[in-house]
């Protein structure tokens, strides 16, 4: 100990330094983000929108289901009816025989309201065993008309619950569904619907390529997912190529689709990424999903706009690319 430093002053200085170190450590722990974790896409998350192999589906639903199950998919989402069946009981039997279940489908919207048609839709859906009630419609373009749409959604949900249905209503978001309200500039109709509904009543199904077209970039798609926590549980994992912005800054309405899986902006590796991650765009999207949505309720579906004749053209590369795909997220 130096001559100019007494025992008292030494202990005081040491105590002050220790306190400062502890405070800095505590402050650092509070300020730093949670530890980065690794997520993985497991087979139970993977299904297929049957438009992807519409030719085979329309010719023979049982054979198509067997092919889908042999690839490894666990569930289907139907397209415009029941394939080669018109009887929901026969459809359910074909699902059971193949070891598949049905997430939902693109069928009747609660808007405009038709009580008898809606009740029949719910009844058929319960026979098939779907988890949720899907539709594929363009939203109204004005605030007042969209509020009427919202009223119909609540009415439809109440009727479904009274019939014993436990799921929610959802809308598949094609490019045209990303319309903004003419009397509320900058407001997407779907966002107004989400503001006036809860996740137990209504959610969006995000189609990656059809979101990329109007939103413009992969980052913009991810920002939309993050902007509405817990409201984007369903995804069509459709590869696509981002549009070129128009002179006014908007983007063309129709997406450019790429098949097979892995050719488009979502599926190809990011050339600016030193690690050259496979399917980097999908990985970044899954990070946004895992950090803002209820992962246990998230389902990922293969789909392509070109209604392929078989279940191999797009579905097999998509399954192989997504199964086991790892992505990082903050826990």
Question: How would you describe what is shown here?
Answer:
- The chain has 331 residues and is an alpha/beta fold.
- It has one domain (45-325): Alpha-Beta Barrel (TIM Barrel), CATH 3.20.20.
- It contains eleven helices and twelve strands.
- Helix 3 (61-71) runs parallel beside helix 4 (88-98) and helix 4 (88-98) runs parallel beside helix 5.
Q: Strand portion, in percent?
A: 15-25%
Based on the coordinates given, report the CATH architecture.
Alpha-Beta Barrel
| Distance from first to last alpha carbon | 48 Å
How many domains? The number is 1
* Helix share, percent: 40-55%
Quantity of strands, as a count: 12
Rounded to an integer in angstroms, the radius of gyration calculated over CA atoms is: 25 Å
Could you name the CATH class? Alpha Beta
CATH superfamily: Divalent-metal-dependent TIM barrel enzymes
Structural class: alpha/beta
Spatial order of the strands forming the largest sheet = 4-3-2-11-8-7-6-5
Mean pLDDT: 87
């Amino acid at each position: 100990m130096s001559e100019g430093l007494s025992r008292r002053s030494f202990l005081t200085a040491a105590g002050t330094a220790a306190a400062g170190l502890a405070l800095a450590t505590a402050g650092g722990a509070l300020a730093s983000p949670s530890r980065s974790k690794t997520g993985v896409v497991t087979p139970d998350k993977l299904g297929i929108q049957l438009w992807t192999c519409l030719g085979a589906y329309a010719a023979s639903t049982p054979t198509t289901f067997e092919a889908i199950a042999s690839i490894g998919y666990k569930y289907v989402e139907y397209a415009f009816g029941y394939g080669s069946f018109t009887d929901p009981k026969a459809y359910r039997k074909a699902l059971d025989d193949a070891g598949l279940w049905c997430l939902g489908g693109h069928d009747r919207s609660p808007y405009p309201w038709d009580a008898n048609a809606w009740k029949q839709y719910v009844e058929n859906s319960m026979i098939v065993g779907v988890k949720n009630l899907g539709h594929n419609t363009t939203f109204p373009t004005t605030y007042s008309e969209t509020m009427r749409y919202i009223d119909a959604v609540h009415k439809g949900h109440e009727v479904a619950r009274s019939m014993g249905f436990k799921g929610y209503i959802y809308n598949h978001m094609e490019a045209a569904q990303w319309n903004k309200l003419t009397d509320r500039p900058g407001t997407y109709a779907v966002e107004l619907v989400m503001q006036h509904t809860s996740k137990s009543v209504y959610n969006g199904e995000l189609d990656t390529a059809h979101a990329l077209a109007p939103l413009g970039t992969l980052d913009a798609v991810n920002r939309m997912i993050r902007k509405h926590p817990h409201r984007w549980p369903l995804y069509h994992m459709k590869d696509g190529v981002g549009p070129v912005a128009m002179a006014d800054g908007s983007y063309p309405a129709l997406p450019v689709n790429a098949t097979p899986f892995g050719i488009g902006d979502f599926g190809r590796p990011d050339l600016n990424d030193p690690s050259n991650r496979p399917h980097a765009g999908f990985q970044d999207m899954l990070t946004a999903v895992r950090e803002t949505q209820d992962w246990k309720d998230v389902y990922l579906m293969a789909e392509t706009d070109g209604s392929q004749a078989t279940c191999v053209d797009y579905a097999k590369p998509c399954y192989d690319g997504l199964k086991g795909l790892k992505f990082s997220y903050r826990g």
